[in-house]
Amino acid sequence: MARIESFEMPEFLKRSEMKLYIDGRSIAAKSGKTFETRNPATGELLAKIAEADESDVDIAVKSARKAFDGPWRTMKPIERQKILLNLANIMDARYSELATLDTLELGAPLSKTVLGKNRAAALLRYYAGQIPLVRGDTLSNSAPGDVISHTLKEPIGVVAAINPWNGPAGMSVWKAGPVLASGCTMIMKPSEETSLSALLFAEMCSEAGVPDGVINVVTGHGAAGAALSNHPDVDKIAFTGSTGVGVKIMQAAATSMKRVSVELGGKSPNIVFADANLDKAVPAAARAVFANSGQICSAGTRLFVQSEIYDEFMEKLVAHTKTLIVGDPLDSDTHFGPVVSKLQLDKIMGYIEGAKNSSAKLLAGGHRMTSNGFENGNFVEPTIFGDVEDDMVIAREEIFGPVLSALRFDTIEEVIERANNTNFGLASAVWTRDLATAHRMSRGIRAGSVWINCYQMLDPNVPFGGYKMSGFGRESGPHHIDDYLETKAVWIDLD
Questions:
Q1: Which of these, 49, 59, 82, 199, has the minimum number of CB atoms within 10 Å of its CB?
Q2: Domains of the chain: which residue ranges?
Q3: Quick one: fold of 11-264+471-489?
Q4: The model scores a pTM over 0.70
Q5: Distances (CA, A) of 118 to 113, 123, 472
Q6: pLDDT (tens digit, 9 = 90+) per residue, 321-371?
Q7: What tens digit of pLDDT does each residue of 335-348 get?
Q8: How many CB atoms lie within 10 A of CB 34?
Q9: Using CA atoms, how far apart are residues 168 and 321, in angstroms rounded to an integer?
Q10: Nearest in space to 185 (alpha carbons), one of 164, 219, 212
């Protein structure tokens, strides 16, 4: 495994220590504690990062509250819009720096992370466009006398954004966009696995003209996230991550009635009917589960294939999978890099070994890669199990790795019931040339997204979120900013 010779370590990583970002400046943690972040492809130390505790979180919340109570929330829409557009331009110019940090820390191929630039800039420009559209309503009422009533939309206040590790730079933008558009302020807590791009993003916000204290970043472990969830002066929590942690956050938020939105895990069905275009569906099925080394909450990990084409489809899918290159994320030929950590690697391999001992058939992969330059990295072969049953562990639990479960089905009614037989409901896909089948499936599947003859489509104007244990609330779309606004009723007696 050889690195691209022209690659240079980002200037950002040449700092002796990565500090917290609070009130527009970098500051050390009160305790002086740090933690390490390492390259999952090589095991090399990337940086030492400040480890925030409850006292640091309190400082960040006070900074955000001060900024919110200052001129920020009353800033004219055109001024906030100008700042978001400035930030979008910075994304255009400097996103490669964020992408490189994500590649080094997450292990996602650089050829893939750099593609996030267009989405990041588009999201910010979309939220900028939403700012002047925030409005209340004039409402009729039946009160006696001459009384008029209307509503005002006002920013909620201080938001805690707790982010996952599987898409750091993009998630920073997705969380910050509606905060900046609404006039709220934010403390962002990135995952301890991937903290670097969030810190650089906060500096870019300051460069764009975001006032001090509006965007803050506290890095650290779960204790920092818990302190944010429990802090009485945080008004809303926006969380993306595992269902288990999401439940704990909701319990903590209940004590002070914080507003909460959560996007959680998934076990998404990808359903292929006999009339599907196999030349399109086969590579898409591989991308649906193996992209980002399977570390995507909406990955199509349950592949349902209609019985009459099952054998043909699986033969084509296995052949295609064997052409995929797992390797150095800095190599332009690499399709998939390592998984994020040794802990995640061990978890994935535990699921794989368990499935090997079941009646499921191992059709591809199934091993950790430990030779020819992979010795120090967290590399897993893209893995496919065939003839999986609905009640098997690999068909029910979120693995968050490059592991596909393939299942046979016969009828529409059957596959709808089986696709919905899960605690999750984040995403799904259907492959068919029949319009009636597409409509019946899209109405029958209980999931926040249904992709027809495609997978993993996202757009700033289209909402994304889950049903059931996959969470609630939506990100993107025309109503996303509403999650960051309070509605105030105003009554005026004219007599």
A1: 82
A2: 11-264+471-489, 269-459
A3: Aldehyde Dehydrogenase; Chain A, domain 1 (3.40.605)
A4: yes
A5: 11, 9, 26
A6: 999 999 999 999 999 999 999 999 999 999 999 999 999 999 999 999 998
A7: 999 999 999 999 99
A8: 18
A9: 27
A10: 212
